[in-house]
Design a protein that fits this description.
Blueprint lengths: L11 H18 L4 H8 L3 H9 L6 H10 L10
Length: 79
């Protein structure tokens, strides 16, 4: 069941999983192992795994470093 928060029903866990899946898809498309990607980002392999799974407790810094390691940047846009 999708998770709802007090922010008007936004399903943040679903969004975290979507971002994690996108990170994994991009990493695999580049032919980079999770270990190599984690090393490039300066984070542990376990943290990289948690990002790809969409776990909510991973820090912003880890997410930004992971995006940079695969040549991407994060930004906000209006929905």
């Amino acid at each position: 069941m999708p998770t709802r928060t007090r922010t008007g029903g936004f399903r943040w866990k679903d969004e975290a999983r979507r971002l994690g899946a996108a990170l994994r898809t991009e990493r695999k498309a580049l032919g980079i192992s999770a270990t190599a990607a984690a090393e490039a980002a300066g984070i542990s392999r376990i943290t990289w795994y948690r990002l790809e799974k969409g776990e909510p407790g991973v820090s912003w810094g880890a997410l930004l470093a992971a995006a940079h390691a695969i040549g991407k940047q994060l930004s906000l846009s209006a929905t």
